[in-house]
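Quick start: read one record
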Amino acid sequence: MSLRHSYTLLAPIYDAIVGRGSQEMRRQSLAQLEPVDGKKVLLAGIGTGLDLPHLPPMSRGGHYVGVDLTRAMLVRARQYRRDDVHLCQGDVHALPCGDACFDAVVLHLILAVAPQPARTLREACRVLRPGGRILVFDKFLRPGQRAPLRRAFNLVIRHIATQTNVVFEQVLAQCPELQVVEDIPGLGGGWFRRIVLEKQG
């Protein structure tokens, strides 16, 4: 089953599955965007729009762009009706955006979902201007962490919804322009992490 198909099926129940549990981590992560006036911010893999209630209002010509692979997810995100948010369908592996055109990129629960997380992070880095930041919130294994149950579970769940064996440090190694500014453990005993990256030079 393709991710496009599985997330089309998951769209009606997605918020019930992950909404409440992820709300506080989303809020804390998106607070790092301030101030946003006049900026252009990408939400890659925006899904049903669970981040939208936590985004600070944009003014002075700035706006948010939300991209998602699945039309069914975008339909639900449009229900928030924010004038400062533009939604479009696209693949996080090949973002429909030019180079260095965003001041910040939000990657919430998408790096571990995308089949190629390193390619996803490289694309986020490509569209980010130098000095801009990437906000990451997702579940990652630590380097050398055995986690046999999570790795075994990945053999099944990766075909339906997400990967459970992604090591963030291995993904980050593919993007030498990015530097870790903050890495805070969160849900699941630190399995979920809130990470801030900055593009150098």
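The longest helix spans residues 3-30.
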